[in-house]
């Protein structure tokens, strides 16, 4: 996250076009570009492809695989509720439904005020705190309907 | 080599074989999806579950994936064990949760691996009643139809496309139960082997979009073993026809040539036989007539011309057609050749003679095993499957070197790629030969790439030199042979010949006959010309001379299954059967003679070339023996190869190869700065050019020029230039391209024809302001 895209590009400049380090720079380049743009649109994927020497399809494969790379606009705050096995067994699916109802915005989209996006997330490794969530990069859990609503309310009212 | 047991059957295995591979080789079926003999094991589908008994009698048997479990001597494996059966049933039930119940309208139905496996292992009913996961499909171009909802995530498509065919525009997107196989955005798949996705996919995600236009259930298709007519590799194919029309072509495995895959030209080029312009009724002086009248008219013309006759066979015509035409001409005292371009004639004959001297060309399976190659020209266009074989060699670490005049797809995998103008190729090859003989190469930077090529060829245990005949002259063919001889016995030599039967046609032709024929027509010594499957009037270099010379003829008699320039100009036209509508023999680039059989008959009466010539002989009162006896007279131990077998190498007397001084005369006489080079692509072939689906992918018509040469001439990307050749001129936009040689303009075949220039000929360029 620390590298700016410009720095990355300068570092790659002296490498031959087939150097494997170019491909290896794809994720840092995406993170840097996402820090600038908020999310990666098609033009951004094309730019990543150009910088790294990957094809646009290869860049898209990476961008859509990693759940912290966003291909659609996201809110200023992101709540990722884990719905993998442990969390799912401890009620994550109900939490997701409750969250969607509470913020009146479908999962994966931005609330009208631009403040919040709620996403289902893959395993956070917080099975001991299931059902868990990642709120702007910070781990929380175990959650229940009450604590989740309080959290969402706080975020929505912040702005 | 050892053995293990599957449910009591003894299964032999080779070292490194997994259980599944060994079982399939021994014809024991273990259900599977993601395993593919060419793509290997992945363990993604979990279907090939088997139970393995522990050698330690105290331990309980365990269930393992057969594709990931190495074979071991004495292993006891059970496919029928209840535990394994249950896992397979669960896997199928799980896959069928999202798979649509659309078999009745699915193109894959009847040859669907998922259907077979579900019937074999799955539960008979679906318990799941929830919503299915759905996707939006992509437009993948005119050849492949996309239906993502049917996907079972076996990853065979990307493993073939990215890992095997080395394409980079089809990938696996997203994650969890939403994995999506497609492109970044809509658009035709770019890889020349993309059509194999249709066969690789175990269900109906990728289906044949051309077949879909006139679909038939696969069990209703008439099939028979055939040979691909679209290049000299001779891939084995299985065309399918219904109601007197050809619907599709699929791969038919040959153990040494195309094992699992064919190229898109082979798969989609077949549409030529259904093209709306295809001649289907005999024509005399522009009017449709019967075969009887056409034969009477032809015989009358030949008699009137008092046998002043010549005939063109063709590199795409089978052995039988060529040999019968030659036999008829021999009886009438006429001239025969299979090539209308004298340079192509000499180069092809030179190549056959070079292979006779040095040993046969390696098969595709052998090419995959080489560890260094020198490639002259664009193989993707002239022999696509050799390109695919070289991609496999590259994956195993082979070093590829290229000498090319126009852009070529293999350049991206080459260790060394040198772009050289067509006329410089000979010098480069001679220099490589010298460098092999020099002990230490001077530390001259300009020669470093050449020295690299020599070093990689000399360091290889198993190397290959290969050139595309269509862009080589006989001199270069011999220079490549000399290089092979100099490098020694570890080096194999191969040529991509200009047609499915070019090797065989060269055996029947003699060098110099093409020029003799042209001159004889020009000065009126030949009054009748029989053209069987050839297109002298549409030739790039000699077309304009032929078009003028044809006015001297009293009759131009054409036999063809496509509407070429020559066929359109014919006085008497005999439409003939396409390759799927008749049987015959092709000799491929290795000299392997392979038979193909008639798959179906159309409602129209369409004889083969050999049949028309036999009939013509009868109308002339000269009965000819049958094609097999004619071929036996020429090649002493010739046996018509049985379709569906692997074919055998043809044994023939050595060709004598006189090199005439005339070969380079056209090039030497000009002093222009620019040379023309053929810019080819994988769909560029006489028959395939009538395949509308494939032709929709034709690259834009431009003049490709190397950036520095362009700057020196004051040109930039997008500039309009007027190119002048002996036959005409044409205005084209300039595209800068690093893959073109200095001082060379790479242009498509149709542009070469319009200008009247061949590969390596001089060209005038004028900037249009």
TrEMBL record, chain B:
Keyword NAD: yes
SMART domains linked to this entry: Molybdop_Fe4S4, NADH-G_4Fe-4S_3
InterPro entries: 2Fe-2S_ferredoxin-like_sf (IPR036010), 2Fe-2S_ferredoxin-type (IPR001041), Asp_de-COase-like_dom_sf (IPR009010), Mopterin_OxRdtase (IPR006656), Mopterin_OxRdtase_4Fe-4S_dom (IPR006963), NADH_UbQ_OxRdtase_75kDa_su_CS (IPR000283), NADH_UbQ_OxRdtase_ferredoxin (IPR054351), NADH_UbQ_OxRdtase_Gsu (IPR010228)
Database matches in SUPFAM superfamilies: 2Fe-2S ferredoxin-like, 4Fe-4S ferredoxins, ADC-like, Formate dehydrogenase/DMSO reductase, domains 1-3
Domain 4Fe-4S Mo/W bis-MGD-type: residue ranges: 221-277
Pfam family, one: Fer4_Nqo3
UniProt lineage: Bacteria, Pseudomonadati, Pseudomonadota, Betaproteobacteria, Nitrosomonadales
Domain 4Fe-4S His(Cys)3-ligated-type, chain residue ranges per copy: 83-122
Similarity annotation: Belongs to the complex I 75 kDa subunit family.
Gene name per UniProt: nuoG
Protein name (record): NADH-quinone oxidoreductase
